[in-house]
Amino acid sequence: MRRTVPGKMRSIAVSLSKGGVGKTTTAVNLAAGLVRSGRSVLLVDMDTQGQVAKMLGVQPQCGMAEVINNEVRLDEAVVEARPGLWLLPGGRTLAGLKRVIDRKEYGGERTISETLAPLDDCYDYAIVDTAPGWDVLTVNALFYAQEVVAPVALEVMSLQGLVEFEHSLQAIQRYHKDLRLRYVVPTFLDRRVRKSDNMLRQLQSHYGDLVCAPIRYNVRLSEAPGFGQTVFEYAPASPGAEDYLALTERILHDEQP
Ligand SMILES: Nc1ncnc2c1ncn2[C@@H]1O[C@H](COP(=O)(O)OP(=O)(O)O)[C@@H](O)[C@H]1O
Ligand SMILES: [Mg+2]
């Protein structure tokens, strides 16, 4: 048990079908932010690119796919990337896992939930980073999660992408009632670009209170992964660190007593 707060573990998927919107950046820095606040976090990478481990400067030997294929035990695959921050890596081997899940006749969508069940309530948070697109791994991540954080890039017109993503979520909610889109995180805010502010207002008018304070465009956020560091380690005084801290606080605020 690595719990530090009472109550149930919160499981949060960081997801949106569109790529390059800041999902992985959000998953990693949100996880790091929660750890800074004394929470224990399991960070799960569901992307074949294995970006999460790289961003944390970790070179994993195995991950989710090897666990499901019974090549390693779950506790062998979960590595402590930072004190209190535990990583279950993704990576290329997930491609094979997709085929394994696809071949299952029944219950394939719950493969990840079943695999991770022994870790339920071992951590304060499980944060799941998902790949772009919509595949069996993302569906699995959403069957596992209870809350969804959807990052939406303000630099492109991606409101439509969010509306479509919500429809896909609704299909899952029919079978998994506890799932809800809880946070919309505007990313790549650039005040110099008028479109950026317009998009933010549009998001707020459609999604109201779900919309969190935006994450500004900040080059430090894109540099940090090259050093295998979170933004709090690489540039703790940067706007990127400030914005991810604010997002962390918003999410902490909703913890059940
Ligand atoms: N707020 C931001 N400001 C500047 N660059 C960012 C920001 N958020 C993410 N990036 C960079 O943009 C790229 C895409 O982000 P990423 O988190 O990988 O998106 P996704 O996981 O949705 O594909 C990465 O190179 C990342 O470092
Ligand atoms: Mg990503």
Terminal residue distance: 19 Å
Q: Structural class, judged by helices and strands?
A: alpha/beta
What integer is the average pLDDT?
95
Low-pLDDT sequence parts: none
Radius of gyration: 17 Å
- Which ligands occur here? adenosine-5'-diphosphate, magnesium ion
Q: Outline, from the CA principal axes?
A: globular
If helices are DSSP runs of H or I spanning 4 or more residues, what is the number of helices? 12
Query: How can the largest sheet be summarized?
Result: 7 strands, mixed
Describe this structure in words.
The mean pLDDT is 95. β3 and β4 form a beta hairpin. A 7-stranded mixed beta sheet has the order 3-4-2-5-1-6-7, with helices on both faces. The longest helix has 15 residues. The chain is globular. α1 packs across α12. By secondary structure, it is an alpha/beta fold. The protein starts with 9 loop residues before the first strand and ends with a helix. Bound molecules: adenosine-5'-diphosphate (ADP) and magnesium ion (MG). The site of magnesium ion (MG) has 4 residues, from α1.
Helix and strand arrangement:
Blueprint: E1 10-14, H1 23-36, E2 41-46, H2 51-55, H3 64-68, H4 74-77, E3 79-82, E4 85-88, H5 94-103, H6 111-116, E5 125-130, H7 136-144, E6 147-153, H8 159-173, E7 180-187, H9 194-207, H10 219-223, H11 231-234, H12 239-253
Parallel strand pairs: 1-5, 1-6, 2-4, 2-5, 6-7
Antiparallel strand pairs: 3-4
The structure holds adenosine-5'-diphosphate and magnesium ion.
